[in-house]
Amino acid sequence: MNNLLPVLVCILSAAALAFSVYTICKNKKILDNVERMLNQAIKGDFHEKQFTEDRTSKIESKLSDYLQSSALSAENVRKDRDKIKTLIADISHQTKTPVTNLLLHSELLHETELSEEQKESLNAIENEAEKLRFLIDALIKLSRLENGILTIEPKTDEVDRLLKEVDSAMRKKAEAKGLDFSVTGTNAAACFDYKWTVEALCNIVDNAIKYTDRGSISITVSSTDMFACISIKDTGIGIAEEDIPKIFARFGRLQASREKEGVGIGLYLAREIITKDGGYIKVKSKKGEGSEFLVYLKILQN
């Protein structure tokens, strides 16, 4: 009996060791399968396989079902995005010619003899056609951004390049209203997508010109360790503090601005662009005392 005890202990120890090795191998196999499924799902080439009926295989089966549904959802999103892309292209193509023709024929009518009443009607047609063209362009740009058809790719660049482009695009419009328009150069650099950030700044400056009847528009730049801050300051009608969040809403227009031209999408688009640049916009304003829009562009640290 005494001789059998060591043998029994050895047998039990060997059995325990064998069971431990079996469990480790089984768990490793399960984890390997789960990792394989996840890797396939990430690559977009996951395929279903047969599973047994034990508990762990059921977990694998549930994960498989989840990954299958996720892959199907991703495919549906891709198809929907392609449809949206096609729709945007169609809208852009189909509306460009009619709007252009409206404006062209309006210009031709200006060269004919018209009564004062007819001239007023013609000016109204021109204004509405221009508004329609801006709205269509803005909606197409916004839709392309939101659906990932066009992407914003920020990179380090000179802020002064932005200022010169904005100056060239907006100075004539400001001076046509009798406004002083000043742009102060800078040697600062920041991270932004040049084309889209010009679009954002021009939208903000255009808004400033629109709501400033006399006085000035000034653009200056200051820098911190983390951001280059572009200040766009006007002497216009200003914004009540409680209304500031509303101006960045899609089609957001305040009651005081109803008489001005515009469709209420320029600032929304500007904020979307600057956010995708990795920056943000702040507004300082008081009703009747003008506004200051502060555009913060991120500076990449070396």
What is the topological layout?
Layout: H1 4-43, H2 55-110, H3 116-146, E1 155-158, H4 159-176, E2 180-183, E3 189-192, H5 194-210, E4 216-223, E5 227-234, H6 266-277, E6 280-285, E7 291-298
Radius of gyration (Å): 31 Å
Identify low-pLDDT runs. none
Helix coverage percent:
55-70%
Give the SSE order as H and E letters.
HHHEHEEHEEHEE
Which whole number gives the mean pLDDT? 79
The total count of helices amounts to 6
Instruction: Estimate what percentage of residues fall within beta strands.
Output: 5-15%
Shape: elongated
Secondary structural class: alpha+beta
Quaternary organization: single chain
N-end to C-end Cα span: 78 Å
What's the story with the biggest beta sheet?
5 strands, mixed
Strand order of the largest sheet: 2-4-5-7-6
- Count of DSSP E strands? 7
